[in-house]
């Protein structure tokens, strides 16, 4: 163990997550880092700034959502990862099999349902069939939905079982839409690259605005038989029809095939930066 690794072991680990308490981000942090300190933050940008800030005696890392199997990419996260002054590293990818609970109070007629827009969209047919007359209200998080329901008679929230405990509500149904897979993936961010064995790498790149430029960049990965996990394009502010790409490939830093592909692909890029190679952990269930 070198001096830097010894120093890290002496630091208190504090994990920033998208709060408030009882969100799915909070559940993932509790599952993955049960013995460390947890810091609730109000936005994804706040999480990134939290990790950037040095704090005496602390090792800070942050958890941000990146993709949902129902709602797609979390574009706020993507846009922040693509910023030129983003200098953190992805240290892990985590996944959560999201199982929603309908929480409220037994014996009350449900006239209003609260939740984050993604669960409301995911469960829209179930809500329509079970509560056709209920008013639907969007909230910033599933935890906020539970907070509101705790103070609002005749209402229910699509939230978590943990939220029902915190806000003293009854679990009216769990799981909602049993047997239907609803995965959310998260990145763990830190100030340093992950030091151990890795399974995946995420890059940021741009290419020339000319025919075939993106194809030319991607061909080396095909030739090296590497699988692309995700590729997302986002417009560069102030530059019409010009894009940055977030690109995840299923190969770690140890892969010679990845090294060969990157060497060739770089020739076709205007800008290329690695956000890190990292392990992909097993999916958590709640």
UniProtKB/TrEMBL annotation:
Pathway: Amino-acid biosynthesis; L-phenylalanine biosynthesis; phenylpyruvate from prephenate: step 1/1. It comes from the Bacteria. It catalyses: prephenate + H(+) = 3-phenylpyruvate + CO2 + H2O. This is prephenate dehydratase. PROSITE patterns: ACT (PS51671), PREPHENATE_DEHYDR_3 (PS51171). Residues 14-191 form the Prephenate dehydratase domain. Keywords: Amino-acid biosynthesis, Aromatic amino acid biosynthesis, Lyase, Phenylalanine biosynthesis. The record marks 184 as: Essential for prephenate dehydratase activity. GO terms for cellular component: cytoplasm. Pfam families: ACT, PDT.
